[in-house]
Every structure is written in C-alpha cells, then in structure tokens.
Amino acid sequence: MSQHFLDQFLFVALPYVCLFTFLLVTVARYRMQSYSYSSLSSQFLENEHHFWAVVPFHYGILVVTAGHLIAFLIPRTILAWNSHPLRLYVLEVSALAFGLLTLVGLVGVIVRRFSNTKIRTVTTFTDWLLFAMLLLQTISGISVALFHPWGSAWFASNLSPYLWSIFKLGPDVTYVAAMPHMVKFHIVLAFLTIGFFPFTRLVHVLVIPNPFLWRKPQVVRWYRKR
Amino acid sequence: MSRSIMLRGTVVLAVVLTATMADAQDSPDYFRQNCMNCHTIGGGRLTGPDLKDLSKRRVGRDWMIDFLLNPKAVIDAGDSYAQEIFDASGGKVYMPVGPGMTKQRAEDLLDLIDAESKLEKSQFKGRQFSNKPFTTADRKRGRQIFEGTQQLKAGGASCISCHSMHDTPALGGGRLGPDLTEVVTRLKGRKSLSAWLVAPGTETMQPIFKGHPMSDDEIHSLVAYFEASAGKSPSEPSANRIALLLMGLVGAAGLVFVFDSLWKRRFHNVRRQLVDVSSPGDHP
Lengths: 226, 284
Fold this sequence. Notes:
Chain A is an all-alpha fold and 226 residues long. In chain A, 69% of the residues lie in helices and 0% in strands. Chain A has helices at residues 3-32, 50-73, 75-81, 85-115, 117-121, 125-147, 151-167, 174-177, 181-196. Chain B has helices at residues 2-19, 27-34, 61-69, 71-76, 80-88, 103-117, 136-147, 183-186, 190-198, 205-210, 216-229, 237-262, 269-278. Chain B folds into 3 domains: 2-117, Orthogonal Bundle (Cytochrome Bc1 Complex, Chain D, domain 2), CATH 1.10.760.10; 136-229, Orthogonal Bundle (Cytochrome Bc1 Complex, Chain D, domain 2), CATH 1.10.760.10; 237-282. Chains A and B meet through helix 1, helix 2, helix 3, helix 4 and helix 6 of A and helix 1, helix 10, helix 12 and helix 13 of B.
C-alpha cells in the first residue's frame, strides 16, 4: 500500500467512518438503551483511592480536550496568543502539566480497577479496551508535547485547517501527510476513540447531570433504625 | 443482521472515500508550489539546478521519471549523475518526493519543463531579489519575525512554532522542523534561501504558506537574521526538553496539591452538615 493511499485511508476515510459511527450509534443507543447512558460509578464499592484516580484524571482530560477544541475553533487567536515566546511557553507548560495530571489519574484508575476484586468484577472487556486506548492516547500526546514542540502553534496552523476540511466535506490531507509518526498515531487514535465512544462508558459525557450545579444538596440516609 | 448491514456499509464508505480522492492540481500550479522553491527554468541555479533544456541532459526520460518518483533511492543506489547533482546542491539535503507524485505526474512535469524551455522567458524564471547589504535593523526585524513578536502580514505561523535557532530564548523553538541556525549554508546562500521562502517546499510548510505567503520585505529580514546566524552552534534540544518536562511535572504536582487542599475534608464536611440539619441531636 503506497504512503499516499495509506494517508487517504487513515486521514480521510477513517475519520468519516468514525464520525458517522459516533453520530449514528450515539443516537441509536440513546433511543434504544437510554438507561445505559452512565459511567456506572464504582465509588460505593471503593472510596479510598477513588478520589486520587478520578479527580486528577477528569480535571486533566477536560482541560486538555478543551484546549484541543479551542485551537480547532479559534486557531488565529491561539497564534496571536503565541506571538510572544513567554506566552507560548506558559501555554505549553500548562498543557503538559494537565497532560501529566491526566496520565497520573488514568494510571490510578487502571490500578484501582485492577487491584480491587469488587471493582474488577464490574469492569467489562470494553472498559479495559477503552482504558488501553486512553492510556496510549495520553502517552502519545505527552510524547508529542515533549518531542515535537510547539504543538499549540502547529496544531493551530496545520491540524485545525485539516479538521475543518473534514467537517466542510473537502478533506485536505496535505496538512497532515508529512507529520511525524507519533503525531499521526495520536490523530488516528483520536478518531478511533470517537468511533468507539458510543459503545463505551464514555457516553456519560453527554448526560452530565448539570442540575447538580444549582439544585439544593441532598443527603442519602438509611430509613430504618440502625 | 443489522450489525452486518452496518459493517458492510462502513466498509463500502471507506473504500469509496479512499478511491475517490483524486488529485486534480494541474502541472503549472504543481510546479509553482512544489518545484520553484529550489529550481528555475532559465533563471539560473538555486538550491537545485536550472531545469532549462532538461531533456538534453545525458540521462534519459526514464531516468528522470525514476528520480522524480524517489530521488533518495536513486542517489543512494550510487548513480553517478544523481550523485553529481546531490553534491552540487551541497550534499546534505535530499530532494523530497513531491506530494502525490505518480508516474503520470512525473511525465506531465517533464512535458511542462520541455515546453517552458522552448520559450524565451519562462513563467518559472524565478523572482529577482534585492542584493542590498543587510543592516542591523534587518537582522533585528528578522529575529522578531522568527519569534513571532512581529507577526507575518499574511497571517502565516511564526517560525518558532516549528523551528529553533541558536539564540531562541528559554525553552527554545519548536522541533517539528529542523534547527535553522545553519539554513543559509544548507540551502546554498542568500539567493536560494530567498527563493525557497517565497513558496516553502516541505510538505509541512507548503499548506501553511500556500494561502499566507511571506512578503519580499519579510523574506529580506528573515534571510538577514539567518545569514548572521551561520557558523553559530545550533541550540541543544535535550536540555530544553528536560526543562519542559520538569516544569510540567512541577505543574502537575502543584495541581494535585491544590486538589488535596480544596477537598481535604471531602469525606466529612458536606455530609456532616447535611445530617446535622436534617436530624439535630441524632448523633453525639
């Protein structure tokens, strides 16, 4: 298979397959299995290490994902921010810190699920596969940050136009064709994760209980006398 | 059943999308965007040789096609003519394979070069650049453009995004592309480098600058900065990388510390208060 054909497959065909799978299966699952839209919290089963795994992981991945999304949506603003080296360094160090935080949390999540018998019992093969994908994605993202700086700048100038070309149905693979293998791996795995999304516990992202932010606090107690 | 249909649909979609990505760019546009940064037709040598009357060289058309399809393979195979060209270009930088290069594309390019060679003045003769001596102000402005403090007028990304220089501050420049401290030497001098910057020819830079070309004035300043840097020692990437990693680790550790401080009494305070309110006197 020539490099040209491989690039067309990985950066044109695969993204569309993953995005369409994401859209169709997400809607289908919500219509057919609404009650499966959950992350199935395991906090009741183990609450000692839960905090040190889940909190760093969630704050890390939310900030890093938001950063990617912002660079995709407003790349010129990111380039303008980066127009002074000091600001570029602040952005890159912060992004790396949140990436490392994600890694710490994710490793915590995996170790906790593996080492606790009760939680291991409620962990499915799909969960393990998802954890493996997220782990590889986090490690590759950190590697890209360290070995191919400055990602915030070249994401805005190269990858944002590529992603827009996908959404505008005029895919332009020239933006990614010459990227290093680690960057290509990170992009392909991102699309695979998007395609895998509706089959996993990740769907809880779409049903975040936002009323938690403003409703009155509730306490759950035993009704019977103890 | 429905899974089978979905799987088949997915495979068909993938094959159709892959097969229909035809490259519709015509030869003059292709030459302008991919070849003119190193070659002219009748305008003299740049990084690569002048291509006027290419068909009259001692190697044949088949050799040319093989070379266009994979220059590095032909040079590394020990071909004497390929080695001659490589040495004349400085013997350091291989000619890259043009994006989407096929046998048909190579044939079309050779036809274009033949046709342009017959003209008195080819459209690919190349631009003329100023020969005026560089000043301190030129070099200073070139460094500002490199580091991004002076943004490129057409909106191109600053060089520091992907490149480093011997004097790039603190954590250094980007590492997606090579260090540019010796770029004047690598690209064979001021004229070749200036021509190269008009339409940067690497696969990574080309899409960025295709719609955001640099002005002659900006190229002049950048070349002034690059020329002044020639002979200096390139920056050291591993030291910058370790510094970046340490700063990231400190930041991550700081965030963990903040979480712990914010939720130190996470097992007690919220629930205790709620229980107190809902049933006063129900606990010691």
